[in-house]
Please model this.
Amino acid sequence: MISWPPPFLPAIPPGGAGLRLHDTSTGQLQDVTPGPVARLYVCGITPYDATHLGHAATYVAFDLVGRVLRDNGHEVHYTQNVTDIDDPLLERAKRDGIDWRDLAVTEADLFREDMTALQVIPPQDYVGVVEAMPTIAELVLRTVASGAAYEVSNDDADGPDLYVDLAAVTGFGQVSGWSRDQMLAVFADRGGDPDRPGKRDALDPLLWRAARVGEPSWEFPGLPTGRPGWHVECTAIALDRLDVPIDVNGGGSDLVFPHHEMTVAQASAIGVEDYARVHAHAGMVGLDGHKMSKSRGNLVLVSALREEGVDPMAIRLVLLAQHYRSDWDYTPDLLAAAQARLGHWRESLSVNAAPPAEGTVAAVRAALADDLDAPAALAAVDAWADLTLSAGGSDASAPGLLARTLDALLGVRV
Ligand code: 5CA
Ligand code: ZN
Model:
């Protein structure tokens, strides 16, 4: 798929402060120490509805990862998928009487516009499931060949469905660290089918679904006519585009289990044991006490805010003002505060001379290096802006240096 246009990245003096991220699988902060090319995979959208602030928060968080890695002197190889075929997309298309392909194209276009407006650096590999179907089918066939898959018959398709046999996989549970009871408690709500008769284990994930009448399907020699289950798409696309171990494998915390657990299990099923060095997860953004979700419909859409004339940089500041790992609820006063902050920063950065900015630049770097502490980075900039407007200064290069730093590291263009 085409990605979106990259924002201009201003050069700033070298001085990256490294990067430590919270790793879900160990529960510890871990140094992200890539080679010259840092490998980043982040789970992309299922394009059946427009981008909400929760999606945006997750993609802005991983955008910071990419910016910090670049500031540390790495090239970043960023891959993101698009789940452009899956049950929720088919259900929404049917409900609205439109073709599922048209729905996916429309929503993916809107997502690109939103990401562009928010100055999110695009992935080099932006890969839809439909276009990656041969790659995914190949991984399904390798799983079958490895003996880690089995058939479950059904009455309403011409061939069997295929499931991954978790008993044949090493290290299951390593990403989430959850107990079996914890897993079972959410599996059905997150796309799983624990009660399907014929499965060897309730948690075994669907690998390949034989085509039901009227459903889109693909044909590959050796497989029933059908389409992939959800998790295998990310394993296949990531392994196709990135060498392992992936330095950072990311997404929202709703993907810890089952999605990322199964993604790793799926890799293990074909003998890839060192899938990712760090599994990083962003917290959930909610509205009125509930996780913002397309299925629930309690959404604040990025595009709707933009249509109201809200400056995308203010939207970005709303997201950056919360630590990426915390769960938080959106309220309009957060937007008002972000707009006020943006105005304050703009005013302070428009002066001819100001207090030196080197210390603030270092504070922004140090905050981001420390598990992406964007709120602390914003506070450092606030302090400089306060001082500039209250006391002034004589450093004529300071406003320009700080403006370029905000742009390069935080993605906020004032
Ligand atoms: N296509 C799959 C991943 S392969 C998927 O989860 N799509 S999604 O459209 O539902 O979500 C896209 C990304 O936004 C995922 O990383 C997901 O974890 C994240 N996300 C979804 N809802 C929220 C929310 N309320 N707050 C924060 N992040 C969210
Ligand atoms: Zn995914």
Observations:
- The first helix runs from residue 53 to 71.
- The chain has a mean pLDDT of 97.
